[in-house]
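ARCHIVE CARD
Drawer: 12
Card no.: 0347
Subject: one protein chain, sequence and derived structure
Cross-reference: see card 0346
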Amino acid sequence: MSATLQESAASGGPAGGAGAVVDAVSGAGVTVVIPTYNEVAGIGAILAAVRAVLPAARLLVVDDRSPDGTGEAVRAASRQDPRLELLSRPARQGLGPAYVDGFRQALRQAPSAVVQMDADFSHRPEYLPGLLAALGAGADLALGSRYVAGGGTEDWPWQRRLTSRLGSRYASAVLGLGVQDATGGFRCWRSRLLEAAVVQPLSLRQFGFQIEMAYRARLLGARVVEVPIRFPDRRLGQSKMRLSITLEALLGVWRLRVLPRAALVPAAPSGSAPGGR
């Protein structure tokens, strides 16, 4: 890959060599996981946009019984798209648990890679091939990064920009992540790494989940790269951020730091590595 990929030496070495072939052109063998809550206004558009970029990918929407009918809209769309699936959860239980349920569902189909992204177009589908190409070049985890050269945010007030950047630096420093954007949620995982990362129960359930998963990847010895993205403010729907979610992330990094490794990731057999399949 070119210098647009900022490699992280977060763990003292890459997590394994070549893995399963990742198709960055059609998305064959790739599953895209999209959590939703009250996203009916834009769910059809984001699904169509992802499908246009990755025509062969499997799309998995994880909906927490949205009262606005998001789940029903996805179910109706799935009748026309056999590679679109709805995972309907009984109630709103937090971003982290929604993603973990979606990850586990996705992994049952043995994909080569799993992408996580939001439904509100803050994660632009045109970046998907670049994230997948990073895995094809040997990464185990590709982070869509706002804070490497070529990345950035759009239409954010200065207070939000400052809080986000400082939060990422804070989490990365406390946990030794070695990445510039520890809080972003646009990511592409090699399946074997993701399988190991979701074995243990989550410690952080909301926004801090993104930090925890990056930390789990580091503990597992993953090779992580950051792919620059431009991150606009959401086009549709309303933000789910609240003060309690921000506080969970700020305080949660210290909880993660003091937890024993075994509480976060399984012990790897001697000579094994999570990257590749």
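Annotation on reverse: The longest strand covers residues 30-36. The beta strands are 6-8, 30-36, 58-63, 84-88, 113-116, 141-145, 152-154, 187-190, 224-228, 230-232.
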